[in-house]
Amino acid sequence: MSVKSFKFVSPGVFINEIDNSFRSRTADAIGPVVIGRAGHGIAMRPVKVESFSEYIENFGDTVPGNAGGDVYRNGNYQSPMYGTYAAKAFLNANVAPLTFVRLLGQQSPDNDGTADAQAGWRTEKNDVQTVPKDSSTAAGGAYGLFIADGDGPAASNGLFTGSANGFHLGAVVYVQSGSVQLSGTIAGTASYGVQASSTIIKSDSNGNFNLVISGATNGEEKYKINLNDGSADFIRRRLNTNPLLSSDPGTFYATTSYEDYWLGETFEQYLRDKTLVSGQLVGFIAGISSGSAATDGPHQMKGAPSQDAIAGWFIGQDLGNYASFDAANAKKLFRFIGRGHGEWLHKNVKVSIEQIQQSNTTTDEYGTFSVVLRHINDNDTAIQVLERFDGCNLNPSSPNFVARVIGDMYEEWDNTERRLKRYNSYPNNSKYIRVDMSEEVVEGGLNPTLLPFGYFGPPKFADSGNLLMSSGTPAYTFLKIGSELPGYAGSISISSSFSAAASSASFFYPEDALRNKATDGGISDQTKAYFGFRTTREATSTAIDRSVADSHRLPYAALGNSNNVPTDTTAASYNTATSNIAGYSYVFTLDDISGSSASTPIYQYVSGSRQLGTSTTARGTNTYETLLDADINRFTAPFWGGFDGVDIVKPDPFYNAGLSSATDENSYSFYTIKRAIDTVADPEAIDMNLLSVPGLTNDTLTGHMIDVCEERADAMAVIDLSNVYIPPHEAYYADRTSRIPANPKQRATDLKNRRIDSSYGSTFYPWVQTRDDNGQLVWVPPSVAMMGVLASSERASAVWFAPAGFNRGGLSDGAAGIPVTNVSERLISRDRDTLYEARINPIASFPSTGIVVFGQKTLQARPSALDRINVRRLVIYLKKQISIASSQILFEQNVEATWNKFKGLVEPILSNVQTQFGITGYRLILDSTTTTEDLIDQNILYAKIMIKPARAIEYIAIDFAILNTGASFDD
Description:
By secondary structure, the protein is α+β, with helices and mostly antiparallel strands. It folds into four domains: 1-30 and 896-971, no CATH class; 32-111 and 646-858, Rossmann fold (3-Layer(aba) Sandwich); 131-302 and 464-508, no CATH class; 310-458 and 582-638, no CATH class. It has 18 helices and 43 strands. The strands form eleven sheets. Strands 5, 6, 7, 8, 9, 10, 11, 12 and 27 form a nine-stranded mixed beta sheet that branches. Strands 2-3-1-34-35-36-40-41 form an eight-stranded mixed beta sheet, with helices on both faces.
């Protein structure tokens, strides 16, 4: 400060204090955003992880593809998920957190209504389905195999007329074009051999049927099948369970691999519980939805985005007269809704309520309970806990209020503002679920003694149908299809030469198995038994029922409100497309637990027993407390209704070939990726310094990535180029050479023609090969390797050092964070020159030194310091750090002392970067020449920072002089 600032009147010592020791708050470590598919995890929302172990916990491990197996039931792991490798490559450096956005199918509210524009899937053929009794010319759709016992009575003409136990859906077969039929002898005393749909056929004495699939491509395929999962002829062992093989022949797989159909849901445990998997059985095939876009019904999952699985409603105990008790009218307390996991949640997780305890004090009437998320494949003697929340209650003012303990926040996408909006009050503490509370509970309007005592089961198709008898030579028995069988829009074609006589029968859709006795599964301590939802094969078994999640796939792509969760317990609340949902399949409550009057009662579940006065809580002077005092205080509920919103006949539903000429309105996959990019566009919502969508090569979307980063001005996009390497999930080629469709010169020309001029983007060439932990070799796009190189370079030096060369870009030496064993194309010197001139950074392979990143240009066409990655990342770093430091003086007085404080915050940052060779010099100007009086009047502080970035050595020129023997080196 100049002495002119002091006012000298009389002699003395004048002191002014200038505090330049203010410690600058450095920004938290900032890492990249990676967008892509993953095995599971929260989708379409940014999730930050600090380590690869945390990433695995949230999203699963790397996925190399080619998993095969039962794809419909276990999920699509057929193509590599490049985002998982990019996350691993970066996080292995342990330099900064990574934010991951998992993709699940979405659709624009303004979509044009075409099949490609709508999220989800359906069978391909659009002909209205009719199923003639003896024809294989029917169009595609979903066909149900219905099973009954073989002891039904015969009509006067000797035909089977029905079973006392009705017909039960055992399996669903999806056909792209053609029909499904049973071949054999018509059920009844008449001996007619026939091959037809909708004709009741006898099995052999072991429950085996002859199933015939007549497809347009492969013709007639015959299979011997049954519904006994212990048999070699079990239907899932005999039929194709991979929907991907039914895509257009030769598109993703060899034509010889093509199948006209795939097997969907099977309900073998449900049939086993009905004793319908062996012995003499009868069955028939009936269409349950067509492939027509105009008549899409059940099992045609088009037209809705991904949907969260839910569990609930959880209901309270009965506090009234048992004689008037109806579990369906019990008070709803709360339910659990997934946080964006799609189908994975209902396939892998169940929820238990345990340690239910009434209040033990007169000062607080609210009781407590625990919420435990368990793996669906555990059993009550070997529990696998994913998360648990103890000591929960229903008191809205308590710190242990269940919504506060678990969290109730959710986010919805605003398509107008292009951002996520957050709703509700309590932050989510669960990785899997959020709580949806009943308004009565939130408002404190329910009896405080209420506790979770049961739950509403999943929705259920209506049980209905008619048999239509036909006479003739031979005579046939048909299922009358129409409004009686929910959701099917077509009808059975019956020859007019037959006169029909109707005969009624019942048709049932699968329901959950519930625990019967507390001692089931070998439990000796009854207080350890969880009543409600059962996931074991038999009541007495601890073996897992592999079909348990199939009945929790809803037959429609969407249920409920705009947030895709059902709004109430009634069928009418679902939506107009689901008018054939017959409410909930069951309502479980502990009030229906009965125990004998013996000194050591065996507790068991008997539905309706409370209303009959025979349950434990209804007998004598007993109350719900009687059951809780006996420690019968736990039950389990399923999740149901999750939906991924993607096309399941594509190995990668977001494959680049499917994005050609795509827009938000005509492609759900394009809209999904663009929305994911826009999710991280706001710098105030998401911190990032890099953006990558590994494997994405669509010019429009990669250009959008660069635009987003340029608008944010604090991140750089690492993009991949098209037609460098075409992986198997993009197209089928018999020879590997066809997977490299063009040379470096063509790719350089293509990029030049895009006329990109931005230092906020970069790209590399070619693809590289990595080795997965299981030893499988996987080709990955160069952006994957660069995530590791950028991270390891930052860890070894700093962001302003070039992520290239043998010191920091040696892929063979581990710079990528994952093993790199090969390149898709070996570049010669001329290739590298061509690429680098076009601002494509080569990845070179040298015989003696291995694979190395051999360039670090940005996509900026104009020559400047910012046409290099290290300088662009340096400037991004400085802007971010100085912005955070500057925020500490916002709203302070705009006076010289504050200016000095600003200098004290910023100077150390610049000095530190200079010391570490990021800049060779700098100058910070903040005085009255920058912050003028006019700016002060506008509440503005204006500073200038000038820097000289340190440049990386990219070219080395050396003169070798050859001298005569007598020459002096000093000359």
